[in-house]
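agent> Task received from the user: take the single chain below, predict its 3D structure, and emit structure tokens. No templates, no multimer pairing.
agent> Plan: (1) validate residues, (2) run structure prediction, (3) serialize to tokens, (4) report one or two observations.
agent> Step 1 OK, no nonstandard residues flagged.
tool_call: predict_structure(input=
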Amino acid sequence: MSKNSVKCILSEGKVCICDLCEKQRQNMFSKRKRSEEYRGKSAQSIPHLDENAVLNNKHDDNDIDNLTEEQKIAKMTESCKTILKCIGEDPNREGLLKTPARWAKALLFMTNGYAQTTNDVTNDAVFTEDSHKEMVVVRNIDIHSLCEHHMVPFTGKVHIGYIPNGKIIGLSKLARIAEVFARRLQVQERLTAQIANAINEAVQPLGVAVVIECSHFCMIMRGVQKVGANTVTSSVRGCFESNSKTRAEFFSIIHGRNICSIAN
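)
tool_result: status=success, residues=264
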């Protein structure tokens, strides 16, 4: 056998140092080295979890209720700057310099119902009155809230009716009760029931009826984009629920064309 045709003896279980086997060994060592280097870099790229930082963040979240309004505005302002950057805007350009702070103040105002209760807004404006046993209706009260699914507005009218049972409530307080629950992240169905329950608890009437008609911007500005769509929800308690004639009278009043709205 000639020198150029030397056969590799690796297959016979012997150590071979021919050029072919040496080249294969070098390739194998190179691949192993690159693989180890890659694993090392990958491990370094995984951020170290600072348990103290996690605990501090949890602590901060738990302390939000104890922040002053100015501190809340400051935290929300910084968060808004991040949002502006994420959508491709520059929070440092002239038109947006004050936008994050304005947004923070506006959102706190639009959700100030979390800091209020029914008792806060009725302000003892519930009076004993045995002479009136008929229906009291305040209709076409403007109402504005934020959809909890997309945090965009829904806006419209609320109609409220009740039949006194020895007590009456100041008419403007009906609107204020509605606003307490509207100034929160809401769904219209729950908002309607909450208003009815609050009035029922405050006045203990023979019955309560609430109807809300709203246009939802989550259906107008996005999604199906149906501008003319309105959502109507109702919630009835007491005699409005048990007596179909009483319920029908209420609906005829709120939809009547010849009945003047009571100024709120």
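agent> Step 4: summary for the user.
The first strand starts at residue 126 and ends at 128.
agent> Done.
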